[in-house]
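Re: that chain you flagged

S.,

Sorry for the slow reply, it's been a week of failed gels. I finally had a moment to sit down with the sequence you sent. For the record, here it is as I used it:
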Amino acid sequence: MKVLLAAAAAFCLAAPLGAQERTPSHPDAKVYFVNLKDGDTVTSPVSVVFGLSGMGVAPAGTEKEHTGHHHLLIDRPAIGQGEDGADELLYGLPADEHHVHFGGGQTEAVIDLAPGRHTLQLVLGDASHVPHDSPVVSEVITINVE
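Prediction finished late last night. Pasting the structure tokens below so you have them in one place:
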């Protein structure tokens, strides 16, 4: 999979090495897909617009209350589930083909996905790519790429 938004790669930072104190989220915070819904059929490249309410967007490394930056999880279990799920909540999100970081504060992306079914989930991360306490995550949606 190839992310066509070059800035995403430029701002992608490595996940922290050790557990750290988690940053509190705002109790009303929500992250969601603006232009996609579960079951949509799309063509590649896929435009993905990230929505956020109750908190603000800030680049990775910015420590400001009630802010964070987006991560797009592709074709993997929901955050907190699966083999590495608990580690992701404590140590941060890795950077790989299943975890795309938008550390520059981006609120949309164009991604290249192969034809077939794909799952997507948005996760807001703090300055160090660690999900907030309580995690601000979207529902997992499934899209079909023609």
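What I noticed first: The mean pLDDT is 87.

Talk soon,
D.
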